[in-house]
Amino acid sequence: MIIIKRIIAIMRAKIKAAAEPTSAETNKLIGMFNQKRYAEAESLVRAMLLRYPKSGFCHKALGAMLRQQGRIGEALAAMQQAAALLPADTEVHYNLAVILKEQGRLVDAEVNYKKVLARKPDFIAAYQGLGNLLKAQDRLDEAVACFRQALKIKPDSVESLDSLAQILVQQRAWSSGLELSIQYLRVSNHNNAKIFFVQCVTSANLAVVGEAVLHHFVLALTEPWAYPSTLMPTGVVLLKRDVALQKCIAQSVQAWPKRLAGQELFHDTSLAAVAGNVLLVELLVSAPVCNIELERFFTSVRNVLLNAAISADSKEVNKVVLNFYCALARQCFINEYVYALTDEEALQASDLRNALIAALENDADIPAILLIAVAAYFPLHTLSGSAQLLQRSWPEAIAAMLTQLVSEPIQERQFHATLPKLTAIEGVVSLAVQNMYEENPYPRWVKAAPAVRPASVNDYLRQNFPTVSFQPLNKDGDVEVLIAGCGTGRHSIGSARKFINAKVLAIDLSVTSLSYAKRKTQELGLTTIEYAQADIMKLAELKRSFDVIESGGVLHHLGDPLAGWRVLLSLLRPGGVMGIALYSEVARQDIVSTRAFIAEHHYASTAQDIRRCRQDLMDLDESVAFRAVLNRGDFYSMSDCRDLLFHVQEHRMTIPGIEAFLGENKLSFLGFQVKAKVLAAYNARFPNDPAAIDLSQWQIFEHENPDTFIGMYQFWLQKSL
After folding, report:
1. How many separate helices (H) and strands (E) can be counted in the chain?
2. Which end of the chain is more exposed for a tag (fewer CB within 10 A), N or C?
3. Alpha-carbon distance 666 to 658, whole Å?
4. CATH says 420-586+652-721 is which class?
């Protein structure tokens, strides 16, 4: 009897074994799947099912092959059969959950994800899948818990870090996000991690900041991870947390307008201690530093530098201090010597400049401190014989300073004669605006933001306006783009990078601006941008058309902005899209009041008067409403301040005026480009307009929130076919 039972057991085992394919068969199938030979693998597994109809593995494999071919309904049936045969197989239930989610059966998918996790709590992919499912249902807190659990299992999971980062941005949980961003950056150098850090550090309430945040913030400035102007407000906050620096800033502000001697300014803090602040040095060389107190401190330090150069003896300057002084000189060049200047300083600085010129003429030794001091008061490239400075051997910090202050401007001047001129520049307004930007090219910038992953125009519009319907362009790449008024190239470089294989024509009135743009474009290795001098009002002479036209902050400086806009529309192909930025009448009331103040006090648009005007504005009582202009970044450099407050031609627009123009010209409004919090506020105020394209409601919103478009109305539109 025992023998019979054993025989029966053996026979049952053989039958069971025969219900599943051999290891050779399964390996062959897996190999075909890994090689993405899905159709062949499907044929093989169907043949195997004829021999092994009860094989859970074969049904699971068939479901996987069908899913990869997009046959979701058939895949679901196969995976359900596999689940019935393999009820304890977590992989089957995971795949079943994935397929159910793809079918939109979110409740059933959630059940299966939870079955998997009940059986295998360390199944990280199930936590990730469930987290994404919950996120899709806007169950964000539950989704956060899933991704945090996934990170407990695998702390270096980039997928989990990235998914959790996206949710924290959506929740505007900046403090939690900042902590996560440090973890993300430790395991990944990907742009997503850097962008996430920038979003968090510039938005969080930085009550307490650790060394890791400071370290990565300096990296964000150095590489950079965003335009330094984006990072500047946060950089100022972090910088003013430094205890040693706080004392020096307070000393200079309290004594203002008196310039303190070095011993008074630094008091019980050594100059070297301040100079060794890495964040301070990096901010100085990256962008105009936009803060009144820091400006007054830097102005005082510059005077200390001047006096050190005048009384220089044979002692070498401390390397750390030398680097700091070079950074300060570069800051002065970046902001175009916008700092206040006393008559005594001006005379002393002129004497040093003359001494430097004489040393160049006589091939004499030039003390480092003298060179740096002159660079802090005058653009070195304008001095006779300045190119000779490049032939001498200098410490690294001075060499970097000379590259920026001498070598690069020389290169830009060489471009002047080579830039093509596409149209004549005529008319009082065009000539006045051209002259202004030849003297003061705009905008001032040093470092470009990192390149984004390029997209087709259609994908770009879908990403920025996901709820808006538009007529897709009939091309995914190779679009022809016109940048009408490119200035110093930030706009044209950004457009060339954001669209796949874009061919960009960038035009401007100012050769000086175009030369800067061309140098920066070459520096970044871009070859798809053509620069040329032209007047928007005469662009119809080109006899060319474009898929995309962008004009940011330009039309409102024309004699007739709407006429210029119509010229651009005549160059836009049917179905083409246009990005426009225009001044807002509502948002620029502080500028209107400031311009009235300027007219009343008869300030001219000269460097001397702009300096004087700025100081007078800083000295106004804080109760004066238009003193808010001091909060604008453009206030802190010469060219940008002239563009902001002293422009020779400025129009301001209204939303009803824009709406009327769009209607008259049969243009479709695709939406404003605004910050996420602004869009969320609009959607909360007007839930009946989820696409956020009702301009009459936007007018109400702007009236209720006057600073909404302080950075201009920036929007996209489409021309009818």
Report:
1. 35, 7
2. N
3. 12
4. alpha beta
